[in-house]
UniProtKB/TrEMBL annotation:
<dbReference type="InterPro" id="IPR018197">
    <property type="entry name" value="Glycerate_kinase_RE-like"/>
</dbReference>
<keyword id="KW-0418">Kinase</keyword>
<dbReference type="InterPro" id="IPR018193">
    <property type="entry name" value="Glyc_kinase_flavodox-like_fold"/>
</dbReference>
<dbReference type="InterPro" id="IPR004381">
    <property type="entry name" value="Glycerate_kinase"/>
</dbReference>
<keyword id="KW-0808">Transferase</keyword>
<comment type="similarity">
    <text>Belongs to the glycerate kinase type-1 family.</text>
</comment>
<dbReference type="GO" id="GO:0008887">
    <property type="term" value="F:glycerate kinase activity"/>
</dbReference>
<dbReference type="InterPro" id="IPR036129">
    <property type="entry name" value="Glycerate_kinase_sf"/>
</dbReference>
<protein>
    <submittedName>
        <fullName>Glycerate kinase</fullName>
        <ecNumber>2.7.1.31</ecNumber>
    </submittedName>
</protein>
<dbReference type="Pfam" id="PF02595">
    <property type="entry name" value="Gly_kinase"/>
</dbReference>
Length: 360
């Protein structure tokens, strides 16, 4: 039997490659003769570059950039032919801010990664958006590319208060195709905007959100309100907006990864498709990796099975996503073991799933 193993990360416990390896290990205990194809997935957030490098190969270009709060951080750009892949979380991720001083956090380092990709002669740059600790509308990124204004653009949302003029350096990446890879379709500002929906995750108190939403509104007024209202402008604290200002096209991150790794062709060669993530919940349908993998499995007319840390999606919702069945670590091995030994626990779960789904 041929099995495609295509999980996302299990946030806080396993990377996507680790999760794929654990699932494969457990499956082989029951069905050692099955043919397994491991394809770790990502939706544009943390792990985006590692997952693509795992499948595509390519060259990793190390780059030291300015972190969200000013200290230098190490990042990498994946070069695959004329395409460069950038993971914005490496330069401005929540793991770098730990919810500290979100009003000062900047995306400047993302701009430096774009320049590194340009200098590596990339003709296409794909930017994975997700897991950011910033909320500056991409102003810092634009500043790194040479943007100027009547307020400091590299000082986080605090610097955007009162801004009325911004000059966008469109020539910095002239001739380069830009792709914003994100599962988020929120606009930049308003009740569904970056600050009000995601600000709490980055450290803003509820009482502060009107102030910082107003700062992004001022930035939008000084640049392009129409673009600010578009889908994906609010991704990664508005980093999506900065990329859209530069002419980027937005595509769901999981679709970008699926296309890059040839997921559909690989699914057509499989008898069953396995995917997973830390929490398979109602939000999973909003562009997360398991839903994207299930869609590809459906196109290939193959059953899709989810292995997750926990499952809170009902049978009807699962069917709507194209998922045949979902199995929960918490239900099978318990919470304590799921967190204490995540790889071993996931392998045990995969062995149990194999008993049902493998013909061995």
């Amino acid at each position: 039997m041929r099995v495609l193993v295509a999980p996302d990360k299990f946030a806080g416990t396993l990377t996507a490659p680790e999760a794929a390896a654990a699932i494969a290990s457990g499956w082989r205990r029951h069905a050692p003769d099955d043919e397994l194809d491991l394809v770790p997935m990502a939706d544009g957030g943390p792990g985006f570059v590692d997952v693509l490098h795992e499948s595509l190969g390519g060259r990793l270009l190390p780059v030291t950039v300015r972190g969200p709060l000013g200290s230098p951080v190490e990042a990498t750009v994946l070069i695959d032919g004329e395409t460069a892949y950038v993971e914005s979380a490496q330069a401005c991720g929540l793991h770098l801010t730990r919810k500290q001083d979100p009003e000062k956090a900047t995306t400047y380092g993302v701009g430096q990664l774009l320049l590194a990709a340009r200098d590596a002669e990339a003709r296409r740059i794909v930017v994975g958006l997700g897991g950011s600790g910033t909320n500056d509308g991409g102003a810092g990124m634009l500043a790194a590319l040479g943007a100027t204004g009547d307020r400091p653009l590299d000082a986080g949302p605090l610097g955007l208060e009162g801004v009325t003029r911004v000059d966008i350096p469109r020539e910095a990446l002239a001739g380069i195709e830009l792709v914003a890879a994100s599962d988020v379709d929120n606009p930049l500002t308003g009740i569904f905007g970056a600050t009000r929906i995601f600000g709490g995750q980055k450290g803003f108190d509820d009482a502060e959100t009107p102030r910082w939403d107003a700062a992004l509104e001022a930035f939008a007024a000084a640049t392009d309100r129409f673009v600010a209202s578009g889908k994906g402008a609010g991704a990664a604290g508005g980093l999506g907006f900065g990329l859209l200002l530069l002419g980027a096209e937005r595509h769901p991150g999981v679709e970008v990864v699926a296309e890059a790794v040839g997921l559909l062709a690989r699914a057509r060669k499989a008898d069953v498709v396995l995917t997973g993530e830390g929490s398979f919940d109602p939000q999973s349908g909003g562009g997360k990796a398991p839903a994207g993998v299930a869609a590809v499995a459906g196109e290939a007319v193959r059953p899709c099975v989810v292995l997750a840390g926990q499952v809170t999606v009902g049978a009807r919702e699962m069917r709507a996503l194209g998922v045949e069945a979902a199995y929960s670590l918490l239900d099978i091995v318990g919470e304590e073991r799921a967190f204490a030994e995540p790889a071993a626990a996931l392998a045990d779960l995969a062995e149990r799933v194999a008993r049902t789904w493998s013909r061995d």
